[in-house]
Amino acid sequence: MLLLAAAAVLALVGAARAQCDLQQHVAGGVHYIVSPNYPLNYTAGTQCRWCITADPGAQLKLSCDVFKLPASTNCTGDRVRISLSGDDSLNDAHVYCGQRTFTLLSDANKLTMVLETLYTSTGGLFLCNMRLYR
Questions:
Q1: CB–CB of 118/77 below 8 Å?
Q2: Which long-range contacts (CB under 8 A, 24 or more apart) does 87-96 make?
Q3: How far is CA 63 from the centre of its chain?
Q4: For 67, which of 37, 43, 53, 101 is 20 to 30 Å away at the CA?
């Protein structure tokens, strides 16, 4: 089982290197959202967006167990913004930076996650997993 999970992460890492803007529908199982170049740091100036949906009536549970971004006051530097309503404009986004772990539950069947980094960034990395929550 652990070997299958590792293979899934490695497959996603390869995909993350190719692109980091993703629209994905989650129908079951575990899905991974990883920073570009994971397990290495992303490069300065990286901008990524993940738009995740599920079937109506379902919610999405996002767990980030590896999250290491440069810390900044009020997360004005490198940051991840997450809209639990799936708002593409991120008007209701929660903002994360620094080193931490967190678990979030979407308001409905959508979630939007954005990585925004400075052009002077030293880089960072994260590994999050997404599951259906009913």
A1: yes
A2: 87/112, 88/51, 88/112, 90/114, 96/64, 96/67, 96/69
A3: 9
A4: 53
pTM for this prediction: 0.85
Q: Count Cα atoms within 13 angstroms, Cβ side, for 103.
A: 6
Q: Position 32: which residue type?
A: Y
Whole-angstrom distance, CA of residue 98 vs CA of residue 67: 8
Backbone φ, ψ for residue 59 (5° rounding): -120, 165
Q: Which of 63, 54, 46, 59 is nearest to 129 (CA)?
A: 63
Given CA atoms 16, 19, 20, 24 in this order, what sign does their dihedral have? negative
CB 80 within 8 A of CB 121: no
CA 110 to chain centre: 13
| 78 sits in which H/E element | none
Given a contact cutoff of 8 angstroms between Cβ atoms, the answer to whether 132 and 61 are in contact is yes
